[in-house]
Amino acid sequence: MQRHSRFAHTRFLGDKRTQLVYDIDELDAATHTSIIEEIVNAEVGICFAPDTLPEARNRGYTLATAGKTRRHRKPHA
To answer: What is the DSSP string of 11-67?
Structure first.
């Protein structure tokens, strides 16, 4: 599966609006494309260094699971 060029070396991608983090390696192709494109078009994506789930949780992000939704809020940064 081809990754978006902006997040080519990222496994965990966060959405600043919802504070959800997506594990790109675990998403299916259709979901992967729609989520990544939505985040990139809205310019609200964030990647973490080191690229790990504990680092994302340290910054207040929760792992997105099937059916989990949150309200979209205006990003602070």
So the answer is: SEEEETTTTEEEEGGGS-HHHHHHHHHHHHHHT-EEE-SS-SHHHHHHTT-EE--TT
Q: Phi, psi at residue 61, to the nearest 5°? A: -90, 150
The predicted-structure confidence for 12-65, as pLDDT tens digits, reads as follows 999 999 899 998 888 776 776 788 888 989 999 999 999 999 999 999 999 988
Q: Could you give the CA distance from residue 45 to residue 39 in angstroms, rounded to a whole number? A: 6
Burial grade of 15 (CB within 10 A; 0-12, 13-18, 19 or more)? buried
Asked whether the CA dihedral 63, 65, 68, 72 is positive or negative, the reply is: positive
Token representation of residue 11: 């496994």
